[in-house]
Amino acid sequence: MTPDGRIEGDTQTAYILALAADVLEPAQRKAAARRLVEPIAERDHHLSTGFVGTRDILHVLSAIGRHDVAYRLLHNDTFPSWGFTLRHGATTIWERWDGWTPDKGFQDPSMNSFSHYAFEAVYQWMVENIGGVWNETPGYRRIRIAPVLDPWLEWARLRYHGPTGLIVSAWRRTPEGGARFEVEVPASVAATILLPAAAGAEGVRESGRPLEQAEGVRLTRAEAGSVTVETGSGRYVFDVPRVVVPPKIER
Length: 251
Description:
There is one protein chain. This protein has helices spanning 12-20, 26-42, 51-63, 67-75, 82-87, 123-131, and strands spanning 100-101, 105-106, 133-135, 142-145, 155-162, 165-173, 179-185, 190-195, 205-206, 209-210, 217-223, 226-231, 234-240. 29% of the residues are buried. 25% of the residues lie in helices and 26% in strands. Helix 1 (12-20) runs antiparallel to helix 2, helix 1 packs across helix 3 (51-63) and helix 3 packs across helix 4 (67-75). By secondary structure, the chain is an alpha+beta fold. It has two domains: 12-111, no CATH class; 131-240, Maltose phosphorylase, domain 3 (Sandwich), CATH 2.60.420. The protein has a six-stranded antiparallel β-sheet, covered by helices on one side. The chain contains six helices and 13 strands. The longest helix is centred in the N-terminal third of the chain and has 17 residues, at 26-42. A hairpin with a 2-residue loop joins strand 11 (217-223) and strand 12 (226-231).
């Protein structure tokens, strides 16, 4: 890495791998994060990664706090993007972004699989961010649910059949700028739930009751932008009057 924060090669993948592997000093990490986002913006918020960099790009963007860029990449439908392949009939992951394009047709058939899951799928990132479900201990005995609201979506619902049972994390935004969060925690499982509440615990309710009065819910932290509660197994419905949503980078 040079003094001005550039990694040799200066590609999106170079910065992705350095950040994902956590091999940088704090000051270098800040510079690498900036240099990752800049070339993405220079390409009108499009990827220039192969399968090695694509695996980690959304995870890295979320880790450096750029959920806005991650969501823009996820929702792109112009070349090159996951949405471009979907728009042209893909039902599986392509080996190459340009496996087929309207202007050039098919790529070289010697290396052009159209069922090439490899490292290019993004389902895990969607589970951990749109749904917000994370495993905290072996066997899913403790989970964390911390959804990051997608500025392009009005609602989302995740149903994950884990080793301890069904985990549900769902949210729906309201016209007033709030959201309702529905969470189901399997039997014998403890959960830490982080709600993106703009005003902290003010006005946040569970099943219509203030958090202090909600059965099976323990408020552990509240600050502007986030509320953290601990629960056991069961179904919980949280209403947050104002939520934090990453800014939408328009296409």
